[in-house]
Write a structure and sequence with these properties.
The structure is a homodimer of 693-residue chains. With 693 residues, chain A is of the alpha/beta class. Chain A is built from 22 helices and 17 strands. The interface between A and B is medium-sized, with 26 and 26 residues.
Chain lengths: 693, 693
């Protein structure tokens, strides 16, 4: 098998193994109808040339309207390639360094250029979005660059099936990268990876971690025996401007290296990581670094040796540094053997307690990967205060694209809305200091230099033909990639982009679909766990309701509902003190039940069922109202979809219709269990007299 | 490999692969110290001869005190073998037909005889129990026969590992019979099976079903491709008087036979079963029949074809009849897709509703296998009313020896006490009619002939060296076998027998151990689900508390606790009417909360937490009191064990000590979760002011 990027000039199918998502040939091919010159033979440019050639073949004859296209990195351009007008325009354009790009069009002559070839990829994505009818007719001067340095997808893929499945928390089939204990190497498998790289690079994603953060024995050997096979995957990704990351096991110096310790301050351990990393980095084209889950949920880590997380991250960072690579060190560290009887321990505090004191102690190429909330990707959590507590450390906010707690790609739950809300959240609002939005944290290194910052998403894709299980969950991947490029993009506009590119819907139906998707996160929240309390899911698989499912477990996820009230007291005055982890503005707002936003009330306060919300309703009546309304909203969305379904391809129509049926069944189950639970517990009847079982 | 029973005269280790349990060589060997004549070459007698030879070798030189032993079935005996006194005694003794035996001792000459060789096995067990010092000194005339025809162990063993493990609900290692998708055939594996056969035949067990009632695709092929390997196992069992049963998939005529239907009234289906069964019966020495779980928990069955359970059982019975074999048809049939919102469906009613109307419609060699209670082996349930509703049908009461809901062999929970209580339960008490104890049902065919009746237990053994995971759980297997032989045996005396045979303890410690074990069922009940309500376990694995774990599931196992009260109304007056499935005596007692026994109150009634029990306590105070007391009892039992541990072999001491530690941890978890749950819900404080979290 010849790695992709060395197959110059060979034809290949456009999306061989699955749906083209937002890159259907019917749109993309229109960009390939004019005489085209692609300059450069680096892997990215060569691959892009192949794509355009395939699209051109797909589109049929070239147009003869006089347009002429030139694509190439700056260093490849010379006067001979450009007409004088375009050359002049280029001379007056400040083409961004790094991964940005410029598009210039003058009198039918079009130039896509960039400082680095990767920028051409991102620029092609922009053109596909911006000019669905083909290359622009009018003159264009467009310069764009990413606002974020690290734009990463983490895959939780395993090499073998096990208790957590091939893809942990995956709801879209098997792994794109692994099967049967090996790295995929078959031609059809690699074609699928190529398609995936094309999809995500069109959005601007620039790194993909191939394997699960929970590194089992088999996957540990990605660092040695599987390196040769991995090189093929890495080459494919590299040819799209996407770097390859690997999750590593902190104890690998013992399990792979035969040492008697993994102590990060032991010289032999450091030497082992140095040697291993050199081998990995020189084997994998575009190797970008490691992802580490250490001292977390029973994974090994530096605490075993009395060392800090900084000690642990820095030994890896040192080994990675010569290769311009980064260690992503996850901050998902908490006591998962908590005793529910111990009210003094609060899982929400854990990440900040562990990592905020270490700010400044990490190497420049170490990045702390912080989940968006303090718990674990619930449909509603406050923003993690740790995101504001690492001014001297590389940091990336981690979102979960795969819908572990948000309907598992059986329910429609568009998360772009949630992520945008998080990214726009100002940690210093309400008098806490200079504005510090999560977006500002993510864009810090682009604006100010220093340790890299960015956005990470846990991928939601698999071997299903539609990539994401639920066809409409493609929009979550799309929104993630776009927001990682520019955290200030409007999530509703992104939905519009996605719908417009993916389907061919009459305008009103497109708007209806955008509306259904835009509200779907809020709808999901309404029929599941109320008022920010979270966690009322079946333990283990996390699908469907179980109000007390986690209430007495070691996972630290409690609601403390009794016959009088519910919620977790995280105030400084009478609770765990978590509220004080925020800067003073939010600390004050959250501390007081009267000012705490309704949607997070139960996260911060234990209140009576009869507590009056700022909405004017009571807690228990809010529970009843939102749960009845949530099911009605799903019914309405499903009905809207039925009008849309006739206008989309049959497989998509059937897929989404079936999932709406399951969502509706499940939403009713949620409604009835939650309402019954609280009615049984509170004894308060529904003010509207609706049926509670 | 030569099947056991053809290895006459070869030595083999006594309990090669595990602990000897109640048959330690130090005791058994004393029976082999006198000159011994074993008459007969049938497999059972030959095997018994081998056992005695091995024991004799183990015991060293034969005694020369003039004793002489003759062992043989009646047909093998002639004047030349017996002295005149013994011959005279034999002439005056009514040796029972069937599986009974007689022991006669006169002046140092001892005879063990039986009508059938299997009786010799059971008689040897009796001698080992009765004469730990060796053959009797005094004159003995003892005649004994089983009071029950069917004395069966069901194994839930799978051939491959899967979601439910190799042994479904097994807590003692792998399967004795299967590994890696195949029937075990290795010499060491078969030695272990031989040991198992010796253990259970010493108790009188006369049939073992080798595979799980949930028959998966691999196990379906036990009926064809694995028959040759199975024959070795069957020969081993047969050589101990134990018949081999197989669980079969009702749809096998389709999956194995290639038919397009499994309709029991289709001639081709009947022909397929006839042909298949002939092949099985002629391949497996001592083949005893089939066990079937049909139309139950998603298993296929006759309902698919609009046929009755009788139709389904009878087609198998007809195929089995020529071979004196039986079909065990399980009555564990209920709706496992119930909607918790539907209060009109009561799982407790299901078995009686399904099967009682069919009484009299089953073939003479069909046996309905009825769980001891209407639900599923909870620590406390009422006795199944179906057991009294099948006067014209073969019937077996099914107990669960494996501790699925009773501590999974991590907790000490001696179930002989429970089974004895069930067996002594008079279904017709309180004016319901002529006494009809469950023991009377089980012994019916021995007393009156007709369709066979008996007792079935789901085995608790596996490949662990101590057979049962928890060393003291061996006593559950022991008690089951003994009660299956004679349901009126006293469970506490059986514990005494087991302790005396298994260990060498000073008398007071033996009594202490018996006491600890005798109360352990009651102790387990006290710290788990209260007052007969059951089911407050973690869904799926069924270990540890989860009060609401099954409350909203499709399994039909609810408690309906709200802020005011708890329990399931199964009365005729206001509930599901289940109480009326009992004969009028019990129906009346159960119908009225004032007369319903405390320990079943919440099974039959929904009552306020402040309801006064006949004990004088209230429901909620009873919950608190029993849960505090339960933990204290475990603490006390563990302390007693520490005094005993020094007197048992090290592996046993460590095994039981470790399990007591886990039992104590788990019991405290149960206490605290249950008490907290009911305190949160009821708001009623503990009258004694103890700590509730």
């Amino acid at each position: 098998m010849v790695p992709y990027g060395q197959q110059h000039g060979q034809g290949f199918p456009w999306f061989a193994g699955g749906e083209p998502c937002w890159l259907p040939a019917r749109r993309a091919a229109r960009l390939a109808t004019a005489p085209t010159t692609v300059l450069g033979d680096d892997p990215v440019t060569a691959t892009l040339r192949e794509d355009l050639q395939v699209l051109a073949a797909d589109a049929g004859a070239e147009t003869s309207d006089g347009r002429r296209l030139v694509v190439g990195a700056l260093a490849e351009l010379s006067a001979q390639h450009l007409g004088p007008v375009l050359a002049g325009a280029l001379a007056g354009t400040d083409v961004p360094a790094g991964e940005g790009f410029a598009v210039l069009a003058r009198g039918g002559e079009v130039l896509l250029t960039a400082a680095r070839p990767a920028g051409l990829r991102h620029g092609l994505g922009w053109l596909t979005r911006r000019f669905p009818g083909g290359w622009p007719d009018a003159d264009v001067t467009h310069v764009e660059e990413p606002r974020v340095d690290l734009r990463v997808l983490d895959h939780w893929d395993n090499m073998t099936d096990g208790p957590m499945g091939v893809v942990e928390r995956g709801y879209a089939g098997g792994s794109l990268f692994f099967a049967d204990g090996r790295v995929r190497t078959g031609a059809a498998d690699l074609a699928r990876v190529r398609d995936y790289a094309r999809l995500v690079s069109s959005l601007g994603v620039n790194a993909v971690c191939l394997n699960n953060v929970n590194v089992h024995a088999t996957e540990a050997h990605l660092l040695d025996e599987h390196l040769g096979d991995l090189a093929h995957l890495a080459a494919l990704l590299d040819a799209h401007g996407v770097r390859t990351l690997l999750s590593v096991d902190f104890s690998a110096p013992m399990s792979l290296g035969g040492l008697d310790t993994a102590d990060p301050l032991d010289e032999r351990v450091a030497a082992w990581w140095t040697g291993t990393t050199k081998r990995v980095a020189t084997s994998l084209p575009g190797f970008g670094g490691y992802v580490v889950k250490a001292d977390s949920e029973n994974r090994p880590g530096p605490h075993t040796y009395g060392r800090t997380h900084a000690d642990g991250a820095n030994v890896l960072a040192a080994a990675l540094d010569p290769f311009g690579a980064v260690v992503f060190w996850r901050c998902f560290v908490y006591d998962c053997h908590q005793d529910w009887r111990d009210r003094s321990t609060d899982r929400a505090r854990a990440a900040h307690d562990h990592f905020a004191p270490l700010d400044g102690e990490f190497a420049p190429n170490a990045v702390l990967q912080v989940k968006n909330g303090p718990m674990d990707f619930q449909v509603r959590e406050p923003v993690s205060p740790l995101l504001g507590a690492l001014p001297r450390t590389g940091v990336a906010v981690e979102f979960q694209i795969t819908q572990e707690y948000t309907g598992q790609q059986k329910h429609l739950c568009h998360l772009g809305t949630q992520w945008s809300e998080v990214l726009r959240f100002d940690l210093n609002a309400h008098g806490g200091g200079e504005p510090l939005r999560v977006a500002d944290v993510a864009t810090r290194s682009r604006r100010r230099g220093g340790s890299p910052t960015g956005v990470v998403g846990v991928a939601n894709v698999g071997t299903d033909a539609n990539w994401t299980g639920h066809a409409l969950a493609q929009a979550n991947l799309y929104a993630f990639g776009r927001l990682a490029w520019d955290p200030d993009l409007d999530p509703r506009e992104l939905l519009g982009e996605w719908v417009e590119q993916t389907f061919e819907l009459p305008g009103d139906l497109a708007a209806d679909l955008v509306e259904v998707m835009a509200r779907s996160w809020s709808v999901y929240e309404s029929y599941t766990a109320p008022l920010g309390v979270g966690w009322m899911v079946r333990p283990g698989h996390h699908y469907g309701p179980d109000v007390d499912g986690y209430e007495y477990t070691p996972w630290g996820t409690y609601h403390f509902a009794d016959r009088d009230g519910i919620g977790v007291d995280r105030t400084v005055a009478t609770g765990t003190g978590y509220a004080a982890q925020y800067p003073p503005g939010w600390a004050g707002v959250y501390e007081d039940a009267a000012t705490c936003p309704d949607e997070l009330l139960l996260f911060f306060h234990h209140v009576p069922y009869t507590h009056e919300l700022s909405s004017g309703s009571t807690v228990v009546q809010h529970v009843y109202d939102t749960h009845f309304a949530g099911v009605e909203a799903v019914e309405s969305s499903a009905a809207t979809w039925e009008r849309i379904a006739a206008h989309v391809p049959g497989p998509v129509a059937r897929n989404v219709t079936e999932r709406f049926e399951e969502q509706l069944r499940s939403a009713r189950e949620w409604r009835d269990q939650i309402n019954t639970y609280f009615f049984r517990k509170s004894g308060v009847p529904d003010a509207a007299g609706r049926r509670i079982h």
